[in-house]
Input
Amino acid sequence: MAKRRNLILTACLLANVARAESLAEIVERAVAAAGGKARLAAVRSERMTGTIAFGTDLPAPFVLELKRPGKIRAEITFRKGPFVQAFDGKVGRVISPFTEPAAHQMGPLETRDIAESADMDGPLVDSKARGIVVELLGKEDVEGKPAWKLRVRRKSGSVRTLFLDAASYLKVKWAGAIGEPGKEVVHETLFDDYRAVDGIPFSHRLRSHSSGGGQAQEIVLSKIELNPVIEDARFGVPGS
Output
């Protein structure tokens, strides 16, 4: 009986090792598919230009800028005026033509979410060293194609589900709860129309929707610039 128990224990340990190796291989292939650590690290800033459409509304001009370490600015030009979200690595601020005309500071969870968006490398690069826990949940179809399903837990407390195309290992879907307590919504984004920019594949179409009947969104990118010169002031108080 003891020998049988030892055999069962050994089999379980081997199964756990196999799962860990499988996850490590998936992460390694995903990082390589995204351009590789060295090429990604060489990108110090990004500027993405295109349009964003909400529901059936006409598309509005959209610009997204990122800069290391951890800075991001998103601007949508509506007819009524610009909507801007800016994060300088510590403080997030918003200016909206539909609410207060002056910039206001983001709340703690809104700041957490935008800081996560400012991560230019994504959660799979050096995840363990950065305290990010990645778990393999198996496979699931995304728009009719098999994808690896990963759970990503950041040190900030956010939990996201990441889907990687099982053939290309590129990101095809992201899902998670965002927003302040009591106002959280489950948000999903689909990524497609990948095109290489200086050897790095970027999705040029992002389709998003949220639970609770919110408007669907579609971002179509027409231009992506790597390492443009962006002053740090761009990520400070919008409109200042």
